[in-house]
Amino acid sequence: MDDMLSRMMQKRRGFTLVELVMVIAIIGIMAGLLGPFLIVTADALDLMSVQSNLQESAQAALERMSRDIRRLRDDESVVNASSSFFWFYDVDDRQMIYILVGNTLVRVIFPVTLPLTVLADHVQTLLFRYYDDDGNLIPSPVVGLGTATNIRRVQVDILFADGSKNLVVEDNIRPRNLRHESDRFF
What we know:
rod-shaped
């Protein structure tokens, strides 16, 4: 009896061809069902990574710009201001410009040293808007070194694009050292 049992156990050590084919077929069916789900999940993770990188880049660039523009020296220190760039002196008497060069947002500090300070890549649009004391949009601001500007608030809009992913960020900046009508005593 023991001899017969040991012979049966020796015969059952491997798998039959039918068993192997069945396992391979089951694994194939499972892979076919789970494959599209895994691809969609990988695409979603990729999209989240791109969005996260754009968001981080946008936040850092906007914070840097806001910090510098708030430090505007006084209302006679705006050299030039247009919808595509902002050129001014800060409280440390540094002359700087924020401008878009290709798809790169840069901060230029005078005297110019290379490489330029890159704030963000993948920028499609940089737009400055200027407002007066009453909150009215100024189409053509009064600017020029030594000339009192009528700018009291600066709105910055930045459109970031990385492939088919877009992100728009905006900030309203009120420079500290500008004379505001609300600050005057009568």
